[in-house]
């Protein structure tokens, strides 16, 4: 769940090519499944549950406008983690963005429904998203945009090999590193510099 009690500041991270992806087994009783046409509603429900969108309709509209025209790629690059009953409760997308003419790989839309957080599922979905990205694209630099409101996910990203970009960015994201770090350190209760 996003913590909107602190200012929203952009955080840009990068996992350098050659950085090992840690081994981590997903918790028992959960499995990974690829996106298939029709799963956009589940994606929208997950992203809305964590506060990324104000409504499922808004999330669904975003997903339709930005991803569904690339259906084959979405099916390869978006995965869910689901319960043994088949309920989709988390997601990640291994996508790309352009910075000018440069095509940058990016891990996007990492989310786990609030009632399933704290079980290791976020870590499982991030690490699996990275493995899928490397399988599809090869071992290249991978970017990630997050924000201070998602500070709880930052330790997972660090464990996955991402580093803060103190300057620079990808796509058109602002990089608020200097302003964001004090909020992260306060919330996480450890030094990040």
TrEMBL record:
One Pfam family matching this protein: Acetyltransf_1
UniProt name for this protein: Ribosomal protein S18 acetylase RimI-like enzyme
Organism encoding this protein: Alkaliphilus hydrothermalis
UniProt domain N-acetyltransferase: residue ranges: 30-188
Gene3D superfamilies recorded: 3.40.630.30
InterPro entries: Acyl_CoA_acyltransferase, GNAT_dom
Classification of source organism: Bacteria, Bacillati, Bacillota, Clostridia, Peptostreptococcales
